[in-house]
């Protein structure tokens, strides 16, 4: 491989992921060239690899995966100020397409803007390549410097932590309140940490996997419920976060929510028709709130990491870039005991 090229994790179709050699990008005006160091595998990366699609976005041509990344600035394009070569940074992976104007009722909620290019997404054609590569050109406006004491592995967790903080922030005040998190995968376990960070009183985590529940405990859960062992969800919980995205969980989760309580849906539900028992939504007058990605909570995430919030227990596996397919398989396998699987994108 020449000094002008780089390696990237590229999905070509269902079940077809390759380590491709690509030209190393050169930053133009207002752009930054990153030398990526760490990337976290997300459910959307797995979906593109397994199915050639994530949600309603389908591959039309090869796509570089990855939107949870961090690294160091390798070069600055002209006109970029306030950043330095060698600086450790992460990336806000969303870029609005168009004028960015939103209706007054959702002013500032840029995660709800209808046209967004997101790292590692096939929603547009041409697709938006992600950051599972040795280098990536990034608009300077999407760069977020890492605070002192936060390394690039932690920095790659800022994006999923921002998702969790956004979900927790959908409830005005968690201080002292009892919280249930249903689904203790990577996002659910980060919701546990985010709820604790926001001052929740008692945090209960529920899942079908003992390994996932162990991670949730390490992230701050006071109690756990192993559904696979027949342990029931708690009753009358004032604030519930549904992080599994499983339609079959909706009925039991609504029943676990207290009358007049709040249910935040952070787990992605299928885009197709599903069967679910929803009667308790009405009879218990539950407030059911959606939570989608994040706005600028990645900044809050970085401050929380700086101030000592330790989310590293969510990391269970680390692989080098050239073993990306193995890493995806481990992340996708419920029997692997994995939570967040990390890719080392460049040699240490």
UniProtKB/TrEMBL annotation:
<dbReference type="Pfam" id="PF00107">
    <property type="entry name" value="ADH_zinc_N"/>
</dbReference>
<dbReference type="InterPro" id="IPR011032">
    <property type="entry name" value="GroES-like_sf"/>
</dbReference>
<dbReference type="GO" id="GO:0050572">
    <property type="term" value="F:L-idonate 5-dehydrogenase [NAD(P)+] activity"/>
</dbReference>
<dbReference type="Pfam" id="PF08240">
    <property type="entry name" value="ADH_N"/>
</dbReference>
<feature type="domain" description="Enoyl reductase (ER)">
    <location>
        <begin position="13"/>
        <end position="343"/>
    </location>
</feature>
<dbReference type="InterPro" id="IPR013154">
    <property type="entry name" value="ADH-like_N"/>
</dbReference>
<dbReference type="InterPro" id="IPR013149">
    <property type="entry name" value="ADH-like_C"/>
</dbReference>
<dbReference type="InterPro" id="IPR002328">
    <property type="entry name" value="ADH_Zn_CS"/>
</dbReference>
<dbReference type="InterPro" id="IPR020843">
    <property type="entry name" value="ER"/>
</dbReference>
<protein>
    <submittedName>
        <fullName>L-idonate 5-dehydrogenase</fullName>
        <ecNumber>1.1.1.264</ecNumber>
    </submittedName>
</protein>
<keyword id="KW-0479">Metal-binding</keyword>
<comment type="similarity">
    <text>Belongs to the zinc-containing alcohol dehydrogenase family.</text>
</comment>
<dbReference type="InterPro" id="IPR036291">
    <property type="entry name" value="NAD(P)-bd_dom_sf"/>
</dbReference>
<keyword id="KW-0862">Zinc</keyword>
<keyword id="KW-0560">Oxidoreductase</keyword>
């Amino acid at each position: 491989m020449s000094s002008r090229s780089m390696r990237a994790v590229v999905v070509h179709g269902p079940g077809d992921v390759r380590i491709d050699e690509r030209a190393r990008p050169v930053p133009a005006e207002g752009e930054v060239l990153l030398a990526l160091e760490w990337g976290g595998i997300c459910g959307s990366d797995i979906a593109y690899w397994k199915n050639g699609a994530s949600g309603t976005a389908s591959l039309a041509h090869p796509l570089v995966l990855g939107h949870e990344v961090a690294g160091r600035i390798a070069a600055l394009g002209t006109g970029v100020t306030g950043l330095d070569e060698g600086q450790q940074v992460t990336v806000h992976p969303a870029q609005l397409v168009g004028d960015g104007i939103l209706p007054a009722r959702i002013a500032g909620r840029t995660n709800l803007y209808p046209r967004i290019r997101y790292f590692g997404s096939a929603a547009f054609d041409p697709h938006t390549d992600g950051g599972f590569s040795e280098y990536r050109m990034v608009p300077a406006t999407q760069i977020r410097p890492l605070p002192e004491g936060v390394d690039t592995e932690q920095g790659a967790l800022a994006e999923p932590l921002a998702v969790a903080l956004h979900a927790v922030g959908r409830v005005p005040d968690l201080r002292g309140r009892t919280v249930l998190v249903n689904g203790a995968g990577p996002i659910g376990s980060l919701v546990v940490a985010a709820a604790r960070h926001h001052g929740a009183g008692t945090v209960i985590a529920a899942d079908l996997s003992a390994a996932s529940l162990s991670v949730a405990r390490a992230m701050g859960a006071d109690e756990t419920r192993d559904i696979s062992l027949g342990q029931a969800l708690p009753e009358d919980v004032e604030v519930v976060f549904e992080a599994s995205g499983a339609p079959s969980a909706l009925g039991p989760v609504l029943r676990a929510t207290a009358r007049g309580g709040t249910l935040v849906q952070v787990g992605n539900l299928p885009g197709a028709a599903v069967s679910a028992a929803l009667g308790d939504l009405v009879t218990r007058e539950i407030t059911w709130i959606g939570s989608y990605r994040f706005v600028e909570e990645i900044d809050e995430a970085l401050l929380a990491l700086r101030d000592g919030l330790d989310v590293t227990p969510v990391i269970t596996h680390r692989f080098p870039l050239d073993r990306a397919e193995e890493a995806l398989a481990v992340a996708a396998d419920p029997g692997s005991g994995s939570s967040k699987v990390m890719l080392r994108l460049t040699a240490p």
